[in-house]
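re the bet — no i am not wrong, look at it urself. input seq straight from the record:
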Amino acid sequence: MGSLKNRHLLGLEGIPREDIQTLIDTAFTFREVLDRPIKKVPTLQGKTIVNLFFEASTRTRISFELAQKRLSADTVNFSASSSSLKKGESFKDTAQNIEAMKIDGIVMRHPVPGAPLHLTKFVDAVVINAGDGTHEHPTQGLLDMMSLVETFDKLDGLKIAILGDISHSRVAMSNIIGLKTMGAEVTLCGPPTLIPVNIDELGVNVSYNLDEVLKWADAVNILRIQRERQGVHYIPSIREYRSLYGITRERVEALDKELTIMHPGPMNRGVEIDSDVADSDNAIILDQVLNGVAIRMSVLFHLLGEKQEKGEA
């Protein structure tokens, strides 16, 4: 296996196709580990990783922590709500104090776009972005692509729809960049108020007609309405959103094909997706969760295991 081009994982922008492929291929190897009775390998024994979360998270935080423990790394969890930041300590001082404890890697989630990049200026540890504001969520983009490869055995030429709140979604941006890099076709769909102006400059299609998009797509990745990020009302009502853009059982049954259903979670059941669709055989939502642990094991291995073993920076 070859080394990755970048020392950190701050986003999928600028990550070459071969590195994305390497991360996905390695993740499938780790999926086999997760299927064993003893789900642990000594790959990162002796490495210490801090999970530095300045924002609430359940799935991503647990997934990273599990990935670290499956690789035998020592894991430390940091919560901003109970830290010295509440006493007025600066972000820089917090980062450098953690660095002084001889940390090898930092997994960071932060509400401000660019915060993980900012962190790299203060620490020598490897930095992995677990979501920065509305910018990117690279490991979610990678696990979504892995799940598509698992389903279709390819990414090149696939037709993928991303549906919902594009404007406030870091998941959407990482998916767009990653899928385009890997040769997939991407169409964004949602209310005009939730799709950024000039987003088509990224090489994606934009449509406001969900039924047409579903007829075109091989798979649809459904984003939740992020009311905590919006600040103002971008949609007239939940009922109207569900009517125009909800993935309902009726919509899916009206298609004359099998449509793969994806959702990064957490789901607003009965809003962007109906429960019976989310729980159907077409949905690979729980596969995405399992693949999330495997892809994060792959990222940690390539950034903290392989390069260190070769004595590289």
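see?? The first helix runs from residue 17 to 34. told u. also The chain is about 40% helix and 15% strand. so pay up
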